[in-house]
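dumping the sequnces here before i forget
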Amino acid sequence: MKRPGPGAVVGFALIWAFLVAFVLYPLTRVFYDAFTDEAGRLTFVNLREFFGDAYYLRSLARSLLLGIAAVVTTSVVGVGVAFLILRYEFPLRNLFSYLMTLPMILPPLVGVLGFVFILGRAGTVNVLLMDWFGVLRPVNFMYGVQGVLLVETIHLFPLMTLSVLDSLAKVDPSLEEAAEVLGARGWRRFFDITLPLMTPGFVSGALLVFIWTFADFITPLVLGVHDLLAAQAYLNIVQFVDRRLFRMGIMISALLVLLAIVFVLAARRYVGLKDYGTLAYSRVERRKLGPRGRWAAVAFLALLLFVSLVPQVGVLLAAIGRGWSLTPFPLHYTLEFFRQVSIETPKFIVNSLIYCGLAVLMCIAIGVPMAWILSRSRAPGRGAMDALTTLVLAIPGTAVGIAYVRAFNAPLPLLGVPLTGTWVILPLVLAVRRLPYTVRGSHSSLLLVHPSLEEAAANVGATRLRTFRDITVPLVWRGILVGGLFSFLTSLQEASATIFLTLGGWEMIPFGIFTFYIAGSQSQAAALGVVLIAVCAVSLHVVNRVAGTRVGGLFG
Amino acid sequence: MRIAVREVTKRFGKVEAVRRTSLSIADGEMFTLLGPSGCGKTTLLRLLAGFHTPDEGEVLFDDRVVTSVPPHQRGIGMVFQNYALWPHMTVFDNVAYGLRLRDVSRADIRSRVGGVLEKVGLTGFDSRFPGQLSGGQQQRVALARALVLNPAILLLDEPLSNLDAKIRVQVRAEIRKLQKELGITTVYVTHDQEEALTMSDRVAVFNQGTLLQIGPPRELYERPANRFIADFIGTNNLIEGRVEAAGAPPIPLRVATPLGTASVQGDARFRAGDRCIVCVRPENARLGDEPGEEQNRLEGRVAFAAYLGNTVRYDVDLGHGISFKVDVRNPRQLPDVALGSRVTVTFPPTSALAVPAEP
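..and the predicted 3d for all of it:
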């Protein structure tokens, strides 16, 4: 092994400095704040107060329950979709497999609004029920935990589908046929053979769904649900009146971090036990469904897709409708609200593009070398680096936002202002949040470049730099670019972490949607929602063009 | 149990994977389906297993039509090419699974699994997981799992293809021994002609969905029915020619080839003027002149020699673009023939065979 040059050592040190300063330090700071008093002495007052307060305990219990409920609903829907698409042949299968990823790519914040416009108390469905069926009081579809569950399920089931698909695709059909010869059929075979073999993918999907639901405060708040842990954290942090409440907000975010870590460790342990190294991808011959099964499959997927698209239609109607109230659909249409949120106040769109663009550049600048270190070097501390990236993936945005508020509010030595007082904090927090995706994406691209390809170049006389330029880069740039665009796409939608850090003039699109809606300006919120969908759609289109496949092609 | 396949056709889209195939397998027979990949042999096995239903024709076990009987009611045990051991279950659980599905009592399961594991030589491996076993051991677990239910028919889908050459030979013998011991009707799929010849009572050779020949290994090797089989099974020198004078054993055919006229064995269906292929096995030819009027003699140059230990295989260039392989046994007792030297190749009419040029 060649000794690394001084440049490599400096780069390595810089990466670690970044990780320590912007991942390790803020997270530690949250715990420090949660367990010290104003004078910096160790105290368990906050912890005791949390567990002594019936309201907080109820919020904790309800959050846990909601998380579990979301895992159950997304499992049923997500696993069902994965099975249909991977194992069966039916009309429009390809179209469905393409469209099924859409709900995940559409911004969750916009989804909530759209559901409210269609299914809310004065939404289309209730108006129709009252007009046509003489229902006297509107049915409460949305306001309450049931609404939160509906929104989370629709938003998150594709995540479950994608996680399960990977595992399911590795279950060789002969494993099931072997059970069939012995007489295990239908559900018996599913529970004895297929399900246990899918556990790795299922557990990682369930974990993501659980943590997302558990830490989401925006959906519950829009739907008027306050007694959930993440919502409490938000409400306690954003009020600047009561120091004690503020401390409780910190305490709750420390709990969010702790629980996320515990869940990740537990899931890792469990999956580690169930990781079957012998499994490999295999081609499955898709079964043809009978006429009845065919109809059922198409009907199920069409219904799912319809429900998933309801919010987009709702948001669009609200954005272009004028004076929409107590009618199923708007009576007058206008583009005024678009003008207001774009030409009149362009800051939302401009900020979003600039901050997210900068975030992606940071991601690539730090994430690609990290991926290289993880896959190619034998640098010390690689395990810790890998663990830290996984941690970032699991820690909810809510907790990251709160951690940054606490960690970077001291004035910087040379500038005289705290980091939270400059807009740089926004692209920075976005970059940290998306870093794991970039690292993993580049890592898997690099794994595709077998070292022997580079060795072959070296063998015919190419220098290391030349090899990197002529062999490695042409093989991985596409993967890195797609990863970067995907980070851009998801950064545009990020709201949880940035909401805590946004000051006047730095507002991005999701912040605008949230504050417009909370302030009662539904039309402006909806117009910004449509803009966000449009920007996301364009980015997605570019991703697809560059990747040369459809993202829906993940469904195979 | 006897198996009969009657006029079975199976299509995938427009491709006929198995075309109007009929064959019958006797009780206790070791029957091999042999052919290159994509020839339809696995499809036929899966038709027997019940994973496919034929588009035309029927499958009978003894005298019962089983064409639409689901796999688990056919009384078959199956070993898959990749063994298909469930990685989340121990060896014991893998083997016991079928018994558990049939509500066999715990004590019975224990004794039956123990018995079958002993039979395949895996006693003491009960609590291992498949990932902790070698390929050969996994193969035996798969065999035990198939046998524990005492099936009337055993189906083996290329069970040795994932094993090292040495272990393959060993497991091959074990399977054959176990099969004879149990007297179980066995259908064995392979693309390896050596495997087919050593293990089978009878072999059916397939190509492109069509059954070409059924017979005992010796018959396939010594009397191939057509050019494909002559070429596919073992090594053969094939020379195209035209029948000059018909004959029937023991009278040899006279065949005109680009290299001259040859006397070869052939059956009575050949008429003068028919196109045919002369087949000569490398081990049936000699380098150097042999006494005897009736010997076929060819002249050529040694183009290549491969030393194989027990034999040396010479490639002799006979001109006209024809290369002829000759095996010389016990090379230690003979001097090497130098490359490029002119040699005479001889072979007796009794060990050369004419087969139809089509198909």
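The domain at 335-556 of chain A is CATH 1.10.3720.10 (MetI-like fold).
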